[in-house]
């Protein structure tokens, strides 16, 4: 199933309509409720602190979270080809207040957990190398904080980042794919789950 990128669409696990920020090269919804996003050439979200690179071109399917506290998770499967290809969970409250949680192809050719938090300028933090082309990603949000966790099995979660963003507008969250140095990158998000509520302990991931 697919439609015009300009048309809002629904996913079975998501309580609100999603809208595209930037047009994907291709996209589709699977029978299992999964979302496939194909990013085109030199697509990225990043504001380099060095001041010589700004990009806001990667396709992102975003929805306004209806709850002040929530968890959004998915299994991300990425067809890696080029450096920095990634499947991404993104959160944003403004053009210069956003963050992305990436399953990304590192410069040394290994899949890796990477996070970027942007407050005017972006930071860039490489974390854990992952064997294979699939991993679970999760965003845990409260009215004041956001946490990123990853999991190898969707059960045991590990914290990567714990931070805050200035809430310039309603919190948007969703799914993205990027190919900053390549021609295209296909990412599939399956086992998507959204639930209202908060974790008892962000650092323990539970």
Task: Give a written overview of the molecule.
The chain is mostly beta strands and 206 residues long. The protein has a single domain, classed as Jelly Rolls (Sandwich). It is built from no helices and 17 strands. Strands 1, 6, 8, 9, 10, 11, 12 and 16 form an 8-stranded antiparallel β-sheet that branches. A 7-stranded antiparallel β-sheet has the order 2-3-17-7-13-14-15, with no helix packed on it. A two-stranded antiparallel ribbon has the order 4-5. It is globular, with a radius of gyration of 15 Å. The N and C termini lie far apart (34 Å).
Run of helices and strands: EEEEEEEEEEEEEEEEE
Mean pLDDT: 95
Percent strand equals: over 45%
Shape: globular
Residue windows where pLDDT falls under 50 for at least 5 positions:
none
Using the coordinates shown, work out and report the CATH topology: Jelly Rolls
Helix content: under 10%
CA radius of gyration: 15 Å
Classified by CATH, the class is: Mainly Beta
Instruction: Briefly note the structural class of the backbone.
Output: mainly beta
Instruction: Give the count of structural domains.
Output: 1
Distance between the termini: 34 Å
CATH architecture: Sandwich
Total beta strands = 17
How would you characterize the largest beta sheet?
8 strands, antiparallel
Instruction: Count helical runs.
Output: 0
């Amino acid at each position: 199933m697919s439609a015009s990128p300009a048309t809002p669409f629904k996913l079975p696990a998501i309580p609100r309509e999603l809208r595209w920020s930037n047009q994907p090269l291709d996209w589709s919804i699977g029978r299992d409720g999964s979302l496939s996003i194909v990013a085109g050439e030199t697509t990225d979200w990043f504001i380099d602190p060095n001041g010589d690179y700004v990009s806001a071109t990667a396709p992102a399917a975003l929805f306004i979270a209806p709850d002040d506290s929530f968890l959004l998770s998915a299994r991300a499967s990425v067809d890696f080809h080029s450096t920095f290809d990634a499947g991404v969970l993104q959160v944003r409250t403004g053009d210069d207040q956003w963050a992305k949680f990436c399953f990304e192809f590192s410069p040394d050719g290994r899949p890796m957990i990477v996070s970027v938090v942007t407050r005017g300028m972006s930071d860039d933090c490489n974390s854990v190398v992952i064997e294979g082309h699939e991993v679970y990603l999760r965003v845990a949000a409260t009215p004041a904080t956001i946490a990123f966790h990853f999991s190898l099995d969707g059960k045991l979660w590990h914290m990567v980042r714990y931070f805050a963003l200035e809430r310039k507008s309603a919190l948007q969250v969703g799914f993205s794919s990027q190919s900053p140095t390549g021609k295209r990158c296909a990412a599939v998000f399956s086992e998507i789950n959204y639930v209202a509520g908060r974790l008892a302990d962000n650092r323990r991931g539970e």
